[in-house]
Amino acid sequence: MSDLEVDVVVIGAGPVGENVADRAHQQGLSAAVVEARLVGGECSYYACIPSKALLRPVDLYAATQRMPGVAEAVSGGVDVAAVLARRDAFAAEDDSGQADWLSGAGITLLRGHGRLAGERAVEVTHHDGTTTSVAARYVVVATGSTPAQPPIDGLDTVDAWTNQEATQVKEVPASLLILGGGVVGVEMATAFRRLGAQVTLVQHGERLIPGTEPEAGRRLQAALEADGVDVRLATSMTAVRRDGDEVVATLDDGSEIRGSELLVAAGRRPATSDLGVDTVGLEPGKPLDADESTTVLGDWLYAVGDASTGAKLTHMGKYQARICGDVVVARSRGQELGGRYSHHAATAEHTAVPQVIFTDPQVAAVGYTEAGARDAGLPVRAVSYEIGSVAGGSLHADGYDGFATIVVDTDRGVIVGATFVGQDVADMVHAATIAIVGEVPLERLWHVVPSFPTMSEVWLRLLETYGL
Ligand SMILES: Cc1cc2nc3c(=O)[nH]c(=O)nc-3n(C[C@H](O)[C@H](O)[C@H](O)COP(=O)(O)OP(=O)(O)OC[C@H]3O[C@@H](n4cnc5c(N)ncnc54)[C@H](O)[C@@H]3O)c2cc1C
Ligand SMILES: NC(=O)c1ccc[n+]([C@@H]2O[C@H](COP(=O)([O-])OP(=O)(O)OC[C@H]3O[C@@H](n4cnc5c(N)ncnc54)[C@H](O)[C@@H]3O)[C@@H](O)[C@H]2O)c1
């Protein structure tokens, strides 16, 4: 006999889990969410929100320094205490508001650690050691991810920072070593350097932000170095130790670097190790492999967000959540699922995943890179254009440094990928996302007239460069 019976139980109340529960509940199903820490998940307190709260002020300040007439009037750098206070206003570690929202929406919140206990069953261990057994028609895993810990001698002895300590920082350290030149590494390098720390970033690959167009990584590296970040590419840390107040890292060439703190930003692992997935025949510690409809097993087990094989981005997780909620509702009503581009298939996962990296320059990309498209066997041609060469770009900032690239499927005559690099390009990627998902032919895009003088005029130049 279970303590609680619901239609849907979601394990993990991050942005993704909350959305599944809400979507299903709004369409008439009863829903419960299990949360071990804070309602709102990693994104709200230790990832997207606090990191962007730290980055926006330093970005804005840097933009003023590129504008004659403003640079002279605004000087002296940002007020670090005020920046941290504003970050706290967005991301203080208090989930009462989000918990109230859940209960207001009619969704049951169970605080504790959830584990699968066989088919359609979840056992919750509360913080006081008591348990609640939940029986549900549908179980959704939305447990997110935890930082990867590379096998480096001494790493477990130096109190290295994860994204949690970095984004919740109370006092900016004099110096920071960053392990990893992916998205977390470059965003935190930008924030901490501009908040006053000396930053050394160690990346074992040949370039920063692998997975984006190579030129994006090169421009970003040049900008970080111009800011004073010490970027070490093709370098590995072999050992780390504490020496007084400092962390000392030994590099693979035998040299040593020192910093007040070490941030490990070397990727994420799905939080599926202590989840009881073995009770239903799945392997712990692996991302849960969900199909287009987010289904993992039978028609009762689903996975969404960072815990799944999908893209590890909040907006993509929330997209999967909307699909998952609608699939569960359809199945509960005995309805057939729709196909590609219905509410029941996460089609964009395969064609158009957008991402904005909030560095300076920003890197905003969607779909395939040129190399990625070729690897996928697509016949493509890519063209690029400097955003600073269109009137909107040159007016936006003196010496505007940035470019746009589109990757065109030459057989179908449609865009399959786009990248924008530069100051304030974040929102430009959405137009490209629409073009890719809508499979808008280049001939039709020719009639999509960009306003003058905006940076979007780069679209026209890209099409001309392509040959239209
Ligand atoms: C520094 C940083 C910055 C980022 N910035 C961005 C950004 O700008 N834009 C973007 O799109 N993405 C960003 N991301 C990625 C984004 O944070 C994740 O993709 C997103 O948080 C995934 O949401 P989720 O709900 O799947 O998981 P999470 O947000 O990790 O939430 C999972 C929740 O499940 C709970 N949980 C886990 N296991 C259990 C269990 N067994 N029982 C009960 N509860 C459990 C956890 O406590 C947590 O609250 C960033 C990531 C990092 C690290
Ligand atoms: N703005 C955003 O959208 C945003 C911001 C931050 C994080 N995120 C998401 O969070 C996730 C995690 O980000 P992340 O930066 O931790 O992972 P990542 O996979 O983006 O990058 C990890 C980097 O660490 C490097 N690395 C791994 N092991 C190393 C080692 N031993 N030595 C040196 N370098 C090493 C890798 O080469 C890689 O470049 C990503 O999926 C990312 O998309 C998104």
TrEMBL record:
Q: Which Pfam families does the record associate with it?
A: Pyr_redox_2, Pyr_redox_dim
SUPFAM superfamilies with a match to the protein in the record: FAD/NAD(P)-binding domain, FAD/NAD-linked reductases, dimerisation (C-terminal) domain
Q: Which cofactor does it need?
A: FAD
- Which InterPro entries does the UniProt record give? Class-I_Pyr_Nuc-Dis_Oxidored, FAD/NAD-bd_sf, FAD/NAD-binding_dom, FAD/NAD-linked_Rdtase_dimer_sf, Pyr_nuc-diS_OxRdtase, Pyr_nucl-diS_OxRdtase_dimer
Q: Which keywords belong to this entry?
A: FAD, Flavoprotein, NAD
The UniProt record lists the FAD/NAD(P)-binding domain at: 7-320
Q: Does the keyword Flavoprotein apply?
A: yes
Family the entry assigns? Belongs to the class-I pyridine nucleotide-disulfide oxidoreductase family.
Question: What is the protein's name according to its record?
Answer: NAD(P)/FAD-dependent oxidoreductase
Q: Which organism is it from?
A: Actinomycetospora straminea
